[in-house]
Amino acid sequence: MADVTNTAAPTMANAGKPIARYEARQKVTGGKIYGDDLAVPGKPAHGWLVTSAIAKGTITAIDDSAAKAVPGVLMIMTHENRPPLQPMKTFSTGGIGLTSQEPLGGPEIAHDGQIVALIVAETFEAAREAGRKLDISYNEGRPATTFGSPGVVRKTTKEVVGRGGGPTLGDVEAALAGSTHVVEAEYSTPVQHHNTIEMFTTTAFWEGDRLTLHEPSQFVWGAKVGLAKQLGIDPDNVHYVSPFVGGAFGAKAAIGHRTPLVALAAKQLGRPVKLVPTRDQCFTIAGYRQETKSKVRLGCDAEGRLTGYSHELDEFTSLLDPYHNGGLENSAAMYAFKAVGGDMFLSRGDRNVPVFMRSPPEVPVIYALESAMNELAEKAGMDPVAFRKLNDTRVNPVNGAPYTSRSLNECFDEAAASFGWSRRTPAPRSMRDGDWLIGWGCSMATYPTSMTPATARVTLNANGGAKVEVAAHDVGTGAYTIIGQTVGERLGIDPRRIIVQCGDSDLPPGPVSGGSVTTASVTSAVAKACDQLLAKMSASGPMSDEDRRAAFDRIGSNALIEYAEWTPAGMDPKQAKTLYEGGVPFAGGAGEDRTMFAFGAEMVEVRINERTREIRVPRMTGAFAAGHIMNPRTAHSQYLGGMIWGMGSALLEATEMDRLRGRYVNDNIAEYLVATNADIPQVDIIMVPEQDDEINVLGVKGIGELANVGTAAAITDAVYHATGVRIRDLPVRIEQLLV
Amino acid sequence: MADDIKKAGPDRRSVLKGSALAGGVGAMLATNVRAAQDGEPRAAAAVSRIPVSLSVNGQTRDVSVDTRATLLDTLRHDFELTGTKKGCDHGQCGACTVHIDGERKLSCLTLAATVEGADIVTIEGLAKGDALHPMQQAFIDHDAFQCGYCTPGQIMSAVALVKEGHTGSDAEIREYMSGNLCRCAAYPNIVAAVKQAAPQMGDA
Amino acid sequence: MRPFQYERAASPARAVSSADAGSKYHAGGTTLIDLMKLDVWRPERLIDISALKEPRMTRIERNGKALRIGSMVTMAALAGDEGVRRSCPVLTDSLWLAASAQLRNMARLGGNVLQMTRCSYYRDTSYDQCNKRAPGSGCAALDGSNRHHAILGTSDACIATYPGDWAQALIALDAVVEILGKDGPKSVPFATLHRQPGNRPDVETTLAAGDLITAFVIPDADWARSKYLKIRDRESYAFALTSAAVALRMDGDAVSDVRIGLGGVATVPWRATAAEAVLKNAALSEDTAQQAAEAAFAGANTLEHNAYKVELGKRTLVRALMDTAGMEA
After folding, report:
1. Which chain B residues are closer than 8 Å to C22 by Cβ?
2. Most Cβ neighbours (<10 Å): which of A369, A440, A538, A631?
3. Known active-site residue A705
4. In whole angstroms, what separates CA A411 from the centre of its chain?
């Protein structure tokens, strides 16, 4: 690891060392660390997916004569010849499946881009050619595409899935009726796709009865157990290998159709099969963030104190499986509301199944709440920062459960000072620079701190070398680095002498890398294993080299190994067993007796050309407090990336649909726009020190999904401030401002 | 550069329509437009392979490639140089950026057959033994990546950018790095890394 | 991608004589390989002309006011030409504001002007309706998703937008295209190179089979007061929603000469002659610029999602005119 001096590594109170990433050298030299890079035994065959050209209907015929005739073609798997598979449960129902729909299960087409064939050939070029030549005939029906499409039925979430009514507190109608100021507005968020730069690759090979998968995964243990069930084999015979993941953001946790199909093909051919799908296929063979609508009513009294908060949340989802996020239980905990009401609804259509995407359920729900907060502050004639500080709370108003820590006001103070918020003139269109209208906006950021059971094995040598093993995942978050740091700090050894192994289902089970649970959960298990080691050496804290050597001498061994199972406080320790079964029970957030969230404050400046109305974001400031920060360098990068995600989500990202045909139209990354370097002139990240001794042993909160929450509300408020035009439907597009 | 539209005919996919879409606006036919040339199989060209001599990271190797093989797939499949990444395969992300005769180009839109004799440098060829290229070190120093998947392309692009002389301002660096998407959004750190490495590069 | 034979052309003449209905030229490859991977284009033979070194195809030459730019010059090379940037910035702006540095290093100008539409229904062969790809099959964009589609030069058969930027500068500046054809060299006005779709959107250009663009000639390239304004959703690496290539000569406040090309709004490179007529010999002001913009978009046809392009296109042109007028002559 290189010695460094850098701008991206601030030091702060209550934080670990800003050391460089464990795998930094591999990442800058092109190391073979991603699924499709890894070597396989023997010459692999290459796969190609054929996906449906319609969103709804039936396959009436498949003519594979031209495809078969392509030299080098080894296999064409369709619903007509697919080997048997067992049913798959979805993630939401305790399984690992993206959908309960059977892969190549029949001629029915349930959504655009459904996998209808897997072709395997000697070369990628031959497989692709055969894929283009596979002739499929359909009987096409009219799809129900999105909100408002013919055939779409709206029901309460509770009616559909049996749970999920909104939180209630007091009489919200009375509270709103008695309010001095009330905002009533509807907000919407679009379909968005994760578009990780690494696509959904899968490599499979069998050695005897043992299947190895090289596949980017946020949950190798879940995938191993789930896939084994689907294939009808012993989980011990499935080996998932995913040392590093080229971006995940929620897209690489659930197993879609491709994985079992590639595994079956490799079995049938008796050789490794590699699949690299196309970018457009990645829009339909995996999940996405579903579109939402929020109807918010929010009131305050003459002094600006919040009264009632009512939120009706509509989510769109698939007719195949009712994936949904909800989220009102979290938003209801945010401020000192006197009364809370609302409900959640699902509408379903002929669409692929959505899945978690960075910061569910907060992104749409907090966008709506924070937008309403900004609108209400204006109505009340208050500065939006002062308005939020006035309405801060130390408890969840719905159940009175206290926050373990909450530094939102401190975040706003720090952000405001850095950004220069006091120089904002409140009137819309009151700030400009030549032909450019300037707008400043702000929002809260928040994300629940959740924890799951985790395990870890730590090996310590007498000479101070160590190895830590846990099937956690590094999706760019710095998991290897902070796991190594945990061992180093706990045992008093140099992190450079610690080998960290993750991303392999042969390792002790770790949780899904989702819901920002990894740091809090896995480091807790690692710390527990370290404490067990220390106890064996009769030590109570980090040891000097001499003390450690002396301890080893006393014990009469040269290496000690400890295995720890950890469960979050308040969870039945027996729940750790779930991990071994491929499951992952969550605890945290808006709990019954404690409320656990990380917070931040975000401020943005937008510039909008007076004439042509293009929107640019020259600077953003975010101040965040999330307990103990394991590594300020990697934390800084996560916050930075999060705010840029939030900006993209507000201004750029939307999957456009052909509403008649039920198909995603801009299914590529030239037209599904994510931010480029040129879009991001300046982002200032402030890490506000926060101590939380109650939340977990290390006092850490998850941070990976914090900074992109609320950004959109800050941006739409800045757009209003610049132009006087309130945009409530995301993303903000130039045509909405040509008024 | 005439486009032979007849050859670019439709898929042989024949859709038996339900009632939903037929007769919509989209089905409007201009009456004097030639009917689709559907279903006439032409003699397909046989798979064509071609011997090429490729110089990658200073080493020349003779390989036989499918004329359709891209440099990207050839590097990954035949040379087992997997540092160069496939992120879109259509010139939309920059993850496959390599240097061809000193210029940054996209290996996904480059046929291997077209670069015979060219000097190709990939991310694996940037360090001199254990000594990292100043740009690689700068990326580490500034944590200019998270998941790391776009990083090889970013670094190859950044090295070329410095040689092109586009380091005049932060804005110029940003613009000339915009052909490399980073979904983790490490952009400001990438700009800082470029600024650190630029004066250190010399003729490296 | 379908199998094809690959051959390297030894000379432009050999390339042209070898070309036939089943072949395509490979220059930078950025459009060609993209569309071949998508299975939209299925040539049986590629004639690789990328290594041709003929000076007339590879040089940028100035002769008095005239500028002659070889078709094999890369986008990056012309974008980086300081002399051209000083004498005629619209020619270089419209290049560096397009694509990415890597693509500009690859793409040759001859191919750049022939780049194909980004219409999703054209690029994705799984849509069965596309008159450009499958003549007579219909146009899915008419009742589909059409935010990016054209409002000028459209027909009932096709509304696909011409996506290029540099072509707007060429058409504005009365460029001439030099072509080597089966019958020898010929020159045609750039304005006649592209065809509006009419009822044959599959026929993109007036080029004959085997025609090879060898150079672009701009008879008068002294337009120091010229610029390319490109409006797009993101700051870089994006296609134009609307754009304007504007070149002005001023006599005090009066416009003595004006050229206008419009991008992102039309099915082909678009010369706004009606707008030019409004401005010629008039004093340039907000009012006259607005009148010119009204004239430019008088014939626009809009659909569900692209109606905004009328207003945005007008504002783009007005801003480009006012900005250009403010430049140092």
Report:
1. 4, 7
2. A369
3. yes
4. 23
Contacts of A670 in chain C (CB under 8 A): 118, 238-239
What token pair was written down for C293? Answer: 């913009």
Res. B202 pLDDT band, cuts 50 70 90: confident
pLDDT at B132 over 80: yes
Q: Give the model's confidence band at C149: pLDDT under 50 very low, under 70 low, under 90 confident, else very high.
A: very high
- Report pLDDT digits (tens) over B37-54: 333 333 445 678 999 999
- Domains in chain B (CATH in brackets) are 49-125 (3.10.20.30), 134-201 (1.10.150.120)
Contacts of B36 in chain C (CB under 8 A): 134-137
Q: DSSP labels for B62-88?
A: EEEEETT-BHHHIIIIIS--TTS--S-
Give the C window 30-49 contacts with A, CB below 8 Å.
Answer: 37, 39
Q: Please state the pTM of the whole predicted model.
A: 0.96
In the predicted structure, residue B16 carries a pLDDT above the cut 60: no
Cβ–Cβ below 8 Å for C235 and A679: yes
Mean pLDDT of all residues belonging to chain C? 97
Q: Of these residues, A198, A362, A414, A705, which one is catalytic?
A: A705
CATH class of residue range A1-31+361-447+589-739: alpha beta
DSSP 8-state class, residue B47: P
Domain C1-48 sits in CATH 3.30.43.10: yes
Residue A660: closest C-alpha in chain B: B21
Residues of C in contact with B191 (CB under 8 A): none
- Residue A316 and residue A514: Cα distance in Å, rounded? 21
Measure the CA dihedral A99/A104/A107/A108, to 10°. 10
Domain with CATH 3.30.365.10 in chain A: 1-31+361-447+589-739, 450-587
pLDDT per position as a tens digit, C201-240: 999 999 999 999 999 999 999 999 999 999 999 999 999 9
- Of B153, B150, B166, B149, the closest CA to residue B201 belongs to B166
Q: Which two tokens stand for residue C290?
A: 């607005």
DSSP-assigned letters across all residues of B137-158: HHHHHTT--SS-SSHHHHHHHH
| Per-residue pLDDT tens digits for B144-182 | 999 999 999 999 999 999 999 999 999 999 999 999 999
Q: How far apart are CA C112 and CA C101, in angstroms?
A: 14
3 state DSSP class of A222 = helix
Closest CA to C102 of B186, B168, B71, A248: B71
Q: Do A249 and B183 touch (CB under 8 A)?
A: yes
Domain boundaries of chain C, sorted by first residue: 1-48, 226-325
Write out the CATH class of domain C226-325.
alpha beta
Is A28 close to B90, i.e. CB distance below 8 A? no
Amino acid identity of residue C230, one-letter, is K
The verdict on a CB contact (< 8 Å) between A126 and B174 is no
C55 touches chain B (CB under 8 A): no
| A645 at interface of B, judged by CB pairs closer than 8 A | yes
The ipTM value here is 0.97
Closest CA to A217 of A448, A36, A468, A26: A36
- A607 vs C: CB within 8 A: no
> What stretches in chain A show pLDDT beneath 70?
1-11
What is the helix (H) or strand (E) element at residue A186, kind and residue range? strand A181-189
- The answer to whether A663 contacts chain B (CB < 8 Å) is no
pLDDT band at B9 (very low <50, low <70, confident <90, very high): very low
Q: How far is CA C110 from the centre of its chain?
A: 10
Question: Is CATH 3.40.50.720 the classification given to domain A450-587?
Answer: no
- For residue A491, give both structure tokens: 């045992």
Contact A199 B86 (CB under 8 A): yes
Q: Would you call B194 an interface residue with chain C, using a CB distance cutoff of 8 Å? A: no
Find the CB nearest C100 among B15, B36, B179. Answer: B179
